């Protein structure tokens, strides 16, 4: 139906969809968890916050699991190189994700303030760890990673955990952190009791402002301080998936694709528009603020993805080993089959997820959690 | 590049530990979710409150377990990339697909609905809640289907071919991967084992209530459901386990021979060794107690086909290493000159054996330089750990037959409405609680340890699949897993025992007080 080149572009876009789905759907859960003790001053207030995400966070986290599965199936080398190369960082994310389901479930099972504050700490820390490390990992994509392939396409990585903490990557981590904290605060402003929501409005305003500052800083740094990568010579877009068949130069600009495709500028514009929208609408404590922060999240991820295109993960050690959209994908048959599956199941997922959100609609009030003596 | 054997060992250990740990929780979820679905269906059909309370009470225990299953499942999805990067590259085109479809079709469904199962009682109609529970059950079981399709392909890699240009396996027929007979047999065997675990869980805890004279109506009803469902499941797990055995003998002859400690090929139909002490060094089994014909019948469904023994299979492996080396050589030629017709023809003829040449890579960089002694060593390495497989298999099967017996007796007692009449039977039911977990874990040991030295049977040796990480990194993660998993295991066990002991009466669920508390009150009342 589609040729190999088109399928690859579609799967690059779908990778973006999954990342945005993860950041938008799961991101606010992380944000709420991280703000648990900031916005919730009493046990009841924290119960309110937890209940705003309790019925749905588990489904939201599947965006992440599905992202991993889809990367494995559609971009196997991207999955293999990034997960094994950034081993300890990924392990920290994994621990954070392991502790979340049990944290949500176990927290309410024992009536002891120490027990509950322990799990509050766990949930907060796990939210922060995932938000920060996701951003730091994204930042490292721009810096290029220290890996190379041998002729068997076995990857070797020549760097340590601490090398991932380059100042630019840390700024990227801050972009992710401030963005998702703002996103979580917008959710709390929309869903939580007014006592909590009023605090959330203030936090959303400040974190959005902080986000704009670090996002602009990261953009300027990227333009002037981080060299880009470019494929040299003829670009074969429907060739076999073997990264070693191309040549790559390091030293161009990451903004090259923006000059080539001016429409890409819509992505950062979307991010800024979202941030402005949050400032304007979050005070109403309605769905508007949350929708604006969702746009902000989507615009930020798109702007990064567009800058990288066609690179998925460049190598600074051996640039030709870099993974690109044109040479790191699965076979044509697998991409086609997976696309068919996505087209069948993604609409179903959206339908039943929307239904669940409809069932649990409405603001979670303090009276509600006090009245029901809630589990969580 | 020579692979660090310490990294291989540590990565295998970590995978084995995390997978076995994950599978303490998964089968209980798979089974108990259907028991909840049955109970809730009875509630909706009869309108009797006690059945709703049963769903809610067993649901609390289900919830604790479900959280652990989800938490430890994420590890599995990550680990292929973290620790098995070359594996992920080499087979991602085939193996990644069922994992991704699992997410799309199954995991999304169950994870999205599980919140409503707990919190939706007062927010939707009875029918809508029943549908939520049923789709939750469907989601968990579909999830198992896709995972076992992925695992089935590791045992029997159909529908795929090696591509020398991309240095990996690629899908040639996804239908073959999906309808892989090994995967289908494994799926029904594995979910049946889960149903046995779910049934035993409900049966044992209910037996404990009856022994204490607590919650008797509640417990008897629960036991009746568990005994009937458990009997069907136990019968199915044994019958379909036999189907699984047949499928294994078709494509993993070495695993079959190791399970049987069958060192030499016997004249057909082979006998089944009921008991014996396998002696790895001398390739013999001491004190063997053999039942004539049985093995031949199970393994080949015939009386005239022989089942090959270990020594013969090692000889076969040697032959396949030799042809595999021709394929390997042709692959290297093709990498430089992709249109070389002669090399293409050789690779096409022998690519099914190339994995055997890769067995040599554990010992040397260039398998083409292998001496006959190296080849012998590689061929010998295809023998899995015979005593472990021999015993694991026998204990698993013995448990399987015991489950049929126990559930039959309990079913009989339930039919005669005499569940609380024989205390010793209740004690037996209570103390049988750990057995299905033991047999299930042993089943995985047979399946996966028995697959060694292969990650993908005949295609990719396990040792080759590892990432280029350092031993120090794997020590760190392994230590982290041991620490966190141990703490979580203790918390899980404490909470399970706490809530099982409280019981429906202690939680204020049954008999109903006035007013009847909604489910979400459960824990609050528990602590009050």
TrEMBL record, chain A:
It holds the Pfam family Cyt_bd_oxida_II. The chain crosses the membrane at residues 12-40, 86-106, 118-144, 164-188, 209-232, 264-282, 289-313, 333-357. Keywords: Cell membrane, Electron transport, Heme, Iron, Membrane, Metal-binding, Transmembrane, Transmembrane helix, Transport. It is found in: Cell membrane. Its main location: membrane. It is a multi-pass membrane protein. The keyword Membrane applies. InterPro entries: Cyt-d_oxidase_su2. It comes from the Bacteria. Belongs to the cytochrome ubiquinol oxidase subunit 2 family. This is Cytochrome d ubiquinol oxidase subunit II. It comes from Dyella kyungheensis. The lineage of its organism: Bacteria, Pseudomonadati, Pseudomonadota, Gammaproteobacteria, Lysobacterales. The gene is cydB.
UniProtKB/TrEMBL annotation, chain B:
It is found in: Cell inner membrane. Keywords: Cell inner membrane, Cell membrane, Electron transport, Heme, Iron, Membrane, Metal-binding, Transmembrane, Transmembrane helix, Transport. It is a multi-pass membrane protein. It comes from the Bacteria. The chain crosses the membrane at residues 20-43, 55-75, 95-118, 130-149, 187-211, 223-241, 391-412, 424-447, 474-497. Belongs to the cytochrome ubiquinol oxidase subunit 1 family. This is Cytochrome ubiquinol oxidase subunit I. It comes from Dyella kyungheensis.
């Amino acid at each position: 139906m589609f040729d190999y080149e088109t399928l690859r572009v579609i799967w690059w876009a779908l990778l973006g969809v999954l990342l945005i789905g993860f950041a938008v759907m799961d991101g606010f859960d992380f944000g709420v968890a991280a703000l648990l003790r900031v916005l919730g001053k009493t046990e009841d207030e924290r119960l309110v916050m937890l209940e705003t995400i309790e019925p749905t966070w588990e489904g939201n986290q599947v965006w992440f699991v599905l992202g991993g599965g889809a990367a494995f199936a559609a971009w196997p080398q991207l999955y293999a190189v990034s997960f094994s190369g950034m081993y300890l960082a990924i392990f920290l994310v994994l621990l954070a994700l392991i502790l979340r389901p049990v944290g949500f479930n176990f927290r309410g099972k024992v009536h002891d303030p120490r027990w509950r504050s322990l799990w509050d700490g766990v949930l907060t820390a796990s939210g922060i760890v995932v938000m920060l490390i996701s951003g730091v990992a994204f930042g490292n994509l721009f810096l290029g990673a220290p890996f190379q392939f041998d002729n068997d396409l076995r990857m070797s990585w020549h760097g340590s955990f601490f090398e991932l903490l380059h100042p630019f990557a840390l700024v990227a981590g801050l972009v992710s952190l401030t963005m998702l904290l703002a996103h979580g605060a917008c959710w709390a402003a929309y869903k939580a009791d007014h006592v909590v929501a009023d605090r959330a409005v203030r936090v959303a305003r400040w974190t959005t402002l902080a986000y704009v500052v670090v996002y602009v800083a990261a953009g300027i740094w990227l333009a002037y301080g981080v060299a880009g990568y470019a494929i040299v010579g003829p670009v074969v877009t429907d060739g076999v998936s073997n990264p070693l068949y191309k040549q790559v130069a390091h030293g161009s600009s990451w903004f090259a694709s923006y000059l080539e495709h001016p429409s890409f500028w819509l992505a950062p514009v979307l991010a800024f528009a979202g941030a402005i929208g949050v400032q304007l609408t979050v005070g109403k404590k309605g769905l508007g603020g949350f929708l604006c922060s969702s746009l902000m999240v989507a615009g930020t991820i798109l702007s990064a993805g567009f800058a990288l295109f066609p690179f998925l993960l460049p190598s600074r050690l051996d640039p030709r080993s870099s993974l690109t959209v044109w040479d790191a994908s699965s076979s044509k048959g697998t991409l086609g089959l997976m696309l068919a599956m996505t087209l069948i199941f993604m609409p179903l997922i959206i339908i039943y997820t929307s239904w669940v959100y409809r069932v649990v609609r409405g603001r979670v009030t303090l009276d509600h959690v006090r009245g029901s003596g809630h589990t969580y | 590049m020579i692979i660090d054997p310490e990294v291989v060992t540590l990565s295998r250990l970590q995978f084995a530990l995390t997978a076995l740990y994950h599978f303490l929780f998964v089968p209980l979820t798979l089974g108990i979710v259907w028991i909840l679905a049955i109970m809730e269906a009875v509630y909706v059909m009869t309108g009797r409150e006690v059945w709703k309370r049963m769903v809610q009470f067993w649901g609390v225990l289900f919830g604790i377990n479900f959280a652990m299953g989800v938490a430890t499942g994420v590890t599995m999805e990550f680990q292929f990339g973290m620790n098995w990067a070359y594996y992920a590259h080499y087979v991602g085109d085939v193996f990644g697909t069922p994992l991704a479809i699992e997410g799309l079709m199954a995991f999304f469904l169950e994870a999205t609905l599980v919140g409503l199962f707990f919190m939706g009682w007062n927010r939707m109609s009875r029918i809508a809640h029943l549908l939520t529970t049923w789709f939750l059950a469907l989601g968990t079981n579909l999830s198992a289907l896709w995972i076992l399709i992925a695992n089935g392909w590791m045992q029997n890699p159909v529908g795929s071919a090696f591509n020398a240009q991309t240095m990996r396996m690629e899908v040639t027929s996804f239908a073959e991967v999906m309808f892989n007979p090994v995967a289908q047999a494994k799926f029904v065997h594995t979910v049946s084992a889960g149903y046995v675990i779910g049934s035993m869980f409900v049966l044992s805890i209910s037996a404990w209530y009856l022994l204490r004279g607590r919650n008797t109506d509640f417990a008897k009803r629960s036991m009746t459901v568990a005994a009937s469902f458990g009997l069907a499941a136990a019968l199915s797990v044994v019958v379909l386990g036999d189907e699984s055995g047949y499928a294994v003998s078709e494509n993993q002859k070495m695993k079959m021979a190791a399970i049987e400690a069958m060192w030499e090929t016997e004249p057909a139909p082979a006998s089944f060794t009921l008991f014996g002490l396998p002696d790895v060094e001398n390739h013999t089994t001491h004190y063997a107690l053999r039942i004539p014909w049985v093995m031949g019948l199970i393994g080949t469904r015939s009386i005239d086909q022989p089942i090959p023994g270990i020594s013969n299979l090692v000889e076969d492996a040697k032959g396949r290493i030799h042809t595999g080396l021709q394929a390997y050589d042709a692959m290297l030629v093709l990498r430089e000159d992709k249109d070389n017709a002669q090399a293409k023809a050789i690779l096409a003829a022998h690519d099914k054996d190339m994995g055997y040449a890769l067995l040599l890579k554990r010992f040397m960089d260039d398998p083409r330089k292998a001496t006959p002694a190296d080849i012998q060593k590689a061929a010998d390495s295809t023998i899995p750990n015979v005593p472990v497989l021999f015993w694991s298999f026998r204990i698993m099967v013995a448990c399987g037959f015991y489950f049929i017996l126990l559930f039959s007796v309990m079913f009989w007692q339930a039919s005669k409405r005499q569940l609380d009449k024989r205390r010793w039977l209740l004690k037996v039911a209570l103390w049988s609680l750990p057995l299905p977990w033991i047999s299930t874990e042993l089943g995985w040991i047979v399946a996966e340890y028995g697959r060694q030295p292969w990650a993908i049977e005949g295609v990719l040796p396990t040792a080759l699949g590892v990432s280029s990480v350092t031993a120090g990194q794997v020590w760190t993660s392994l230590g982290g897993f041991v620490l966190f998993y141990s703490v979580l295991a203790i918390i899980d066990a404490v909470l399970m025992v706490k809530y099982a002991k409280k019981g429906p009466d202690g939680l204020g669920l049954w008999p109903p007080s006035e007013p009847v508390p909604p489910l979400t009150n459960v824990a609050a009342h528990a602590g009050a």
